[in-house]
Design goal:
The chain is mostly helical and 296 residues long. It has 3 domains: 134 residues, Up-down Bundle (Four Helix Bundle (Hemerythrin (Met), subunit A)), CATH 1.20.120; 73 residues, no CATH class; 74 residues, Arc Repressor Mutant, subunit A. 66% of the residues lie in helices and 0% in strands. The chain is built from 14 helices and no strands. α1 runs parallel beside α6, α5 packs across α7 and α6 runs antiparallel to α7. It is flat and about 85 Å long. The protein starts with a helix and ends with a helix. Sigma factors are initiation factors that promote the attachment of RNA polymerase to specific initiation sites and are then released. This sigma factor is involved in regulation of expression of heat shock genes. It holds the Pfam family Sigma70_r4. It is found in: Cytoplasm.
């Protein structure tokens, strides 16, 4: 049977990589070890492969692009480990996003594939998490799972539980009364599709969220990419500042980052007891180091 990742490959006219089986075929540890053995592509090789796939539909080139970035999907997936979902499932969903990114990647834009693909990878993982979040939150422990199944069976023949029934269920299943009430509330609710149209024949059907959310001028996808890009750049800025020596860091901060109290080269020169030209040189060298980090 084809996995969702394999189906996505076929749907996007991309080759099925050797490692798409994931955990059904072997252990997750073996898969992660295998993908980390795949060499990272240089800029030149990556652009060459991307052009071959874009211009000539070279599936071998697409396969190599996918394989060389599977390790990055594992890295992103580990960042979502706190959601209670299996790492293998998150990796598989992220790999689907990677396939979509490879198909849409334009090497002429001047960015690395990993910078472009991260948005597609995270988007697939986010969709998977949102689809499974309610199920995971309903029953995360062994006691809650037991409560979930027993309470579901009871509610097929009972309405809302009274206080005595709540107390009896809690005592029988060794959980708190609060957990019983919370589980009952979850089981009584239902999910609403974000853009599902309401039934025109049903006057009591609640509208979907898309019907009453405030419209924004900025496209949601673009807004997400912008915020994600800003967060990445802020992290790079912190990393770049941390790599500078104390004097260079102080000069960059006071010359470029302190908007309310920006100082001149001469003011810094007087403070450090050197010429303004020396301060300019230190500033230029520091900016050069930081720009190299952003361009990597």
């Amino acid at each position: 049977m084809k996995t969702p990742m394999t189906q996505a490959l076929v749907a996007n006219n991309l080759p099925v990589p050797a490692f798409t089986g994931l955990t059904p075929v072997g252990s997750l540890e073996a898969y992660i070890g295998a993908v980390h053995q795949i060499p990272v592509l240089s800029v030149e090789d990556e652009q060459d492969l991307a052009r071959r796939f874009r211009d000539h539909e070279d599936l071998d080139a697409a396969r190599e692009l996918v394989h060389s970035h599977l390790r990055f999907v594992v890295h992103v997936a580990r960042g979502y480990s706190g959601y209670g979902l299996q790492l293998g499932d998150l990796i598989q969903e992220g790999n689907i996003g990677l396939m979509k990114a490879v198909k849409r990647f334009d090497p002429e834009v001047g960015v690395r594939l990993v910078s472009f693909a991260v948005h597609w990878i995270r988007a697939e993982m986010h969709e998977f998490i949102l689809k499974n979040w309610r199920i995971v939150k309903v029953a995360t422990t062994k006691a809650q799972r037991k409560l979930f199944f027993n309470l579901r069976k009871s509610k097929t023949r009972l309405g809302w539980l009274n206080a005595a029934e709540v107390s009896a269920v809690a005592k029988d299943l060794n959980v708190s009364e609060r957990e019983v009430l919370e589980m009952e509330s979850r089981l009584s609710g239902r999910d609403i599709g974000f853009d599902a149209p309401s039934d025109e024949d049903d006057d009591h059907a609640p509208p979907s969220p898309a019907a009453y959310l405030v419209a924004r001028d900025e496209d949601p996808a673009q807004a997400y990419e912008r915020r994600d890009s800003e967060a990445d750049q802020l992290e790079l800025l912190r990393e770049g500042m941390a790599r500078l020596d104390a004097r260079s860091r102080d000069i960059i901060r006071r010359r470029w980052l302190d908007a309310d109290s920006k100082v001149t080269l001469q003011e810094l020169a007087d403070e450090y007891g050197v010429s303004a030209e020396r301060i300019r040189q230190v500033e230029a060298n520091a900016l050069k180091k930081m720009k190299a980090l952003f361009a990597a």
